[in-house]
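Researcher: Going back to the complex we discussed earlier. I've cleaned up the inputs and rechecked each line, so this should be the final set. Can you rerun the prediction on the complete assembly and write out the structure?
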Amino acid sequence: MATRSSFYGQISANKRNSFLMAGFVVAIFALLGFTIGYAIVGSPAGGVAATALALGVGSITGIATYFSGDRLVLTVSGAKLVDEATAPQLLNVVREMAVAANVPMPAVYTIDDTAPNAFATGRDPAHASIAITTGLLEKLDREELQGVIGHELSHVRNYDIRFSLIVGVMVGAIAILADFFLRFTFWGGMSGRRSDRDSSGGNGAAAVIAIVAIVLAILAPIISRFIQLAVSRQREYLADASSVELTRNPYGLERALAKIGTDKEVLEVANRGTQHMYFTNPIKKFEARSSGLMDTHPPILDRINRLRQLTGEAPLEASDAAALAGLD
Amino acid sequence: MNPAILIVIVIVVVLVVVLIGIYNGLVQRRLRIDEAFAQIEVQLKRRHDLIPNLVNAVKGYMGFEQKVLTDVTNARAAAVAAGAQGPTQQAAAENALTGTLRSLFAVVENYPELKANENVLALQEQLTTTENQISFSRQHYNATVLDYNTSIQTFPAVLIAGILGFVKRDFFDAEPEAANVPNVDLSLS
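Model: Rerun complete. Updated structure for the full complex:
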């Protein structure tokens, strides 16, 4: 009973956190738009107008990504659609997990790469795609594959795929907005406003706002990126827990994580823009296994140990994880 | 109009709306059960269709163990027959069939030619996925039954569920996992 309640607790806590964080990113975006507008125009009305403009432009790019972001990601990653003849077992496993998650069967793609990894994308469960590297298919047995597919379909069922598309765009928009403002301030805006201020006899409030806007423009992109990454890490834990809820078998996923975690191959098609979507971080740091603020994924050992918490087993040390990968 | 009559009318209208809401909620839950059950039945039917192919594919090789094959065939026939007898009987017959299939696959492990046979491997994969889909749709079905049974036994639906003919539904019972370890006789005489 204790394992069950902590398991559902994990899921609801994760959901709450990511909603809070998404709201926070939108608030940063609006605040940045407001102060920039205020600083440029010199009145709160300008702030409101700029906020509206920023949110408008943000929504348009958001909508564009919403409808075509998945195709873009699949093309960039070199994913190929599979059919019954090429990968019957993969399709069977996806179909099983789709039944378990009670979502429609997604489109299934493979990426021709020996590094074992996978990702899910799309805007909702009815328009979802799953991509798996050929290395993953070769290296994992059926049970382990089930765990990984369960993880990816949990991203689909929990609407993480939509979340990561939209938050990705928001973070990008904040960066562009801040960048635009900083360039404007340093190359043109400053001189124009200075003469303006001279004629009106100086305005303390406007100066303060201008400074606040500059500070925000520097900090907002960094903070929103941190939030995106923190959400991304939370969502990985949630998807692991949901995968176990679906398969009722924590061992397959645990073995898959250990196998992939000890694998030394590098996924060439992944880049900074797509790395947060993958099953495990495709960009590897061989030297350190620290959980930095800029990581898109929690450390694999930590994920394995959270699974072991569900089954009430003792946590593993770094040296044990390699041994686990040898088990079959 | 007399205010007392007005109040009575308002109360009656509110009551009717609430009743309609409860009734529709129950109907929706009951429909979800039927839908979930249909999902199980599709998979069960698929398994019933796959089994004769498998039996034919392995028959030639398994000269010694005809009993395993007849067990599977008999269990399949029983499961097909139990299809019309409601979830409880059907679940029991299907679980028996699952048991005999496990014994069959355990026996197949002893025949290197069979393990290497592409046809047998493909059938084995198809049966495995069908079996997994059965157990996942069973989880889903049982969840919908639990949801429905809880709602007809709790306030306020409990007041009208009985009168309107909403009765408890049966679970599609999961087999007791540990009790079903395949028992295979390996003494080839």
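Model: Worth noting: Residues 177-189 of chain B have pLDDT under 50 and may be disordered.
Researcher: Good, that matches what I expected from the previous run.
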